[in-house]
Design a protein that fits this description.
The protein is built from 4 helices and no strands. By secondary structure, the chain is mainly α. It folds into 2 domains: 44 residues, no CATH class; 37 residues, no CATH class. The N and C termini lie far apart (28 Å).
Length: 82
């Protein structure tokens, strides 16, 4: 049974599995708290094919700080590395 990580983690089992794979705590928490994570099946558009506004909204959803002043390429970098 997965350890209870408190109310800040919605899917404890997914969080623990990601941490075992070496994913950072922040990224594991973000993925574990995304209701439809893992259900898209790789069908999402590449970041380069999205508009800056779409990237901004995704950055807002995952809580990337400073996103309002970022360029499109900076948003892509932040989304990939955060």
């Amino acid at each position: 049974m997965a350890k209870d990580h408190g109310p800040s983690i919605k899917d404890d089992a997914k969080y623990e599995a990601l941490r075992r794979e070496g994913v950072s705590k922040q990224k594991a928490a973000r993925i574990a708290n995304t209701p439809d994570a893992g259900e898209r099946g790789g069908k999402a558009k590449d970041y380069e094919d999205r508009s800056k506004q779409e990237l901004y909204e995704k950055a807002k959803q995952v809580g990337i700080p400073g996103r309002s002043k970022m360029t499109k390429s900076q948003l892509i970098h932040a989304l990939r590395n955060n």
